[in-house]
Structures are given as structure tokens and as C-alpha cells.
Amino acid sequence: VKKIAVLTSGGDSQGMNAAVRAVVRSGLYYGLEVFGVQRGYQGLLNNDIRPMDLRSVGDIIQRGGTVLQSARCKEFVTPEGQQKGADILRENGIDGLVVIGGDGSYQGANKLSKLGIKTMCLPGTIDNDISFTDFTIGFDTAVSIVVDAVNKLRDTMSSHERSSIVEVMGRHCGDIALYAGLASGAETILVPEVPFTIDEVANRMRQNFEHGKRHSIVIVAEGVGRGDDIAKGISERVDVDARVTVLGHIQRGGCPTHNDRVLGSRLGDFAVRKLIEGESGKACGIIKNELVLTDIDTVVNTKKGFNKELYDLASRLSQ
Length: 319
Ligand code: ATP
Hints:
Layout: E1 3-8, H1 16-29, E2 33-37, H2 40-45, E3 49-51, H3 79-91, E4 96-101, H4 103-114, E5 118-123, H5 139-160, E6 162-168, H6 175-184, E7 188-190, H7 198-210, E8 216-221, H8 227-237, E9 241-246, H9 258-276, E10 282-287, E11 290-295, H10 296-300, H11 308-317
Parallel strand pairs: 1-2, 1-4, 4-5, 5-10, 6-8, 6-9, 7-8
Antiparallel strand pairs: 2-3, 10-11
Adenosine-5'-triphosphate binds next to helix 4.
């Protein structure tokens, strides 16, 4: 490859900027020409492509969001849209593309790869719902934001003997709830991967109050349902004032943690090096702190595993 482009697609996440910076600066370091595609696949179809130099990615490593902006693009889901995208890249002389995004963005990259564009995917989403990587870029920051919020809720909860129900993001994946729940000492963590009944949740809360706990924190992954419904179910069964906090998009904003910056930097550089080595149609990930390449096909067709060991640990420690 001689000319590569980078784009961010789907929901944004903290650390995407570190990854963009790494792709640009590693690409230039290895003698490639590097281009930035603005606003994901939509920008590609609009030919919104500009050359990137060393300075174009200055002062962004500490920022949330993505300087390349992101978008959802219906046209790109059609074969005609994908062909148009491949043609536009070729017309610009671009033979390699790094896509930073979630599952849908991977599917798009896979299509481009099958149309002869050398593509690499990086996991950019707070949800941690991508297989063949232990962590996605943005997940660590999102978890930190939830933990920080729960710290604050704890102070006020224990003064009033209340129960705090905290609804967190993650789509169908319970990882944000799991890691944030363990790290913040939540009594109960509700995730789509582990079945539960409201009676069990209520009984556990009742027992904890009987054992002298003064507050109760329940983390609810959005994949399980609404925090409001969980609170209603608890209030019907236990004599407790259950208050709901929905953290929402706050989880997707703010300054990325050092973990997300390091992960974005390592993966961005890895993607460029692998493109230079001639790889294509691959997803970059990190497993046991080693950078790994997996076929995009395999990644999009494999559901991310759930860390039941960690879930059981959180459960044992929260009695
Ligand atoms: P997140 O999980 O963080 O929201 P995502 O990448 O999964 O990120 P999507 O909106 O699903 O977000 O996908 C981003 C874009 O990728 C879509 O707007 C669309 O242009 C493209 N895309 C999604 N699915 C496909 C597909 N099956 N084929 C081609 N392109 C697709």
C-alpha cells in the first residue's frame, strides 16, 4: 500500500482520536500518504476526504469524540453504495483503509475488502461487544465514568437508607455493568448474559438490609431493560426508596483514560503495520495484552463471550 485512509463510524467513543492519531503518524512514519475521511461511510460516499499531515492530529489525544466525526449511512448498507465507496477510494488512489467503529462498521469494512480495498478494523465502541478482543477503545473510560457516578451516589444513599438503581449503556452486552459494578462494589449487577428474577433481586436486597447494609446499589445494563421497571419491581417487594439514575450519553463523553489512549495508539499503529505487510479484511484486537489479527468475517459472526468468573466474583464480594 502507498496511500491509506482512516475513518470513524457508528457511535463515537473516547480514545478514537488516539487511534486516528496513531494511524496518521505511523502511516507517515512508514512513508505512506495518509487521508482522513470525514463523517464515516457517509463522508466516503460524499468524497469528503482530505490529506492528513503530522500536525492535523495534534492536540487531540486527550479529547473525547472523534475529530473525523462519525455518522450512520443507510446508502452504504446497499451493494451499490459499497461499490460507490470502493470506486471513490480508487479514484483517490487510496488502496488501504482503516475503519474505527463497532459491529456495523466492521460489516461495511468487510464489504469493501471483498471489493478489493485493503481494510483493517479497529474496535471503537464503549460497549465492549466485539469478539476477538478483550477490550474495545472507549470501554475503559465509560466504565470509569460509571464508577465515578456511583461513588457520588453512594455518599448520598448511605445517608438516607435508599437503593440506587443505575442504568448503564452497552446495548446487548453487559460488560460496562459488570466491570463498573465490580469496581464500585454494587450489590447487584443485572446483565443480559445472566438470567435473573426480580424476586431474587428483592430477596437479596432485603437480606442485605437485615445484615446491616445502609444502602444498596443495583447496576442495570440497558440490554436487560429499563432501570425504572427494575425500581418499580423492587419497590413492590421491599420497603425501600428506590431511586433511578440513567447515565446515558455522559458515558460516551469526556477525556479518555490512559488505558484507552494506549489501546488506541497501539491498535492504530498495528493496523498500519499489518496493511504494509499486505494483510486485508482483518480486525485488530488485544487478547491477554497481545495484539492480534482475526478475519473480519469471523469477528462479525462470533458473539462476544461473557466473563462469568468476574460476575461470580462480584457476586461473592458484594454480600
Ligand atoms: P456502535 O456499536 O458503537 O453504534 P456500529 O459501527 O455498530 O457502532 P452502526 O450504526 O451499526 O454502528 O454501523 C455504522 C455504519 O456502518 C452504518 O451506518 C452503515 O453505514 C455501515 N453498516 C452497518 N451495517 C452494515 C452492513 N451490514 N453492510 C454494510 N455496511 C454496514
